[in-house]
Amino acid sequence: MAPMLSKGYARPVNGLVLMLIAWAAGFGLSCGSQTGPSEPAGNSAEETGPGEGVLEIRICGRQGVNIRTGPGTNYRKDRNGPLMLGENLHVLERKGDWLRFRVTAKDTGWSGWVRQDFTLTEQEYEQRHDELWEAFDRSQGIR
User: Fold this and answer.
1) Which of 4, 77, 83, 125 is the most buried (most CB within 10 A)?
2) Widest CA span of the chain, in angstroms?
3) Can you say whether the dihedral through the CA atoms of 67, 85, 124, 141 is positive or negative?
4) Beta bridge partners of residue 114, listed in sequence order
5) Angle, CA 82 vertex, CA 85 and CA 78 arms, to 5°
6) CA-to-CA distance for 83 and 60, rounded, in angstroms?
7) pLDDT tens series, the chain, 143 aa
């Protein structure tokens, strides 16, 4: 299963923001941005499968994948920043090799586009979980 952030926090823009959110959460502080998705996927039974209008749930298979405002590299990068490895993507639409998605089943105020080959099915992610995260750790100089 993909790692999920605590409810109530917006999708982080980068690793530094994630660390700051984790630090603030430890002190019971609330932080987040309302410019993008309003809350990440949760653990409740109603959010474990595709929601209304969601074709499937896929998972980001790389760190730092650009979100686009349309289905192609000719569209600008989304201002909310790149996707994180392991982030859930609720797929709404397909256009060629591109997927329109949102990061929660219930969010209706935002969506972005990503190339399908940067995503994995939940089964593929579970099979490759350790390999993906070890590669990420090596890229960060952790291992």
Assistant:
1) 83
2) 45
3) positive
4) 99
5) 150
6) 7
7) 444 443 333 444 444 444 444 444 444 433 333 334 333 333 333 444 556 689 999 999 999 999 999 999 999 999 989 999 999 999 999 999 999 999 887 777 889 999 999 999 999 999 999 999 998 898 888 86
* Angstrom distance (rounded) from CA 59 to CA 34: 22
Token couple for 80: 């909310």
Q: How many CA atoms lie within 13 A of 31 on its CB side?
A: 17
Backbone dihedral angles phi then psi of residue 21, each to the nearest 5 degrees = -65, -45
Q: What is the DSSP string of the chain?
A: ----PPTT-PPPSSHHHHHHHHHHHHTT-----SSS-SS---SSGGGSS--TT--EEEEE-STTBPPBSSSSTTSPBPTT-PBPTT-EEEEEEEETTEEEEESSSS--S--EEEEGGGEEEHHHHHHHHHHHHHHHHHHTT--
What pLDDT score does 49 carry? 55
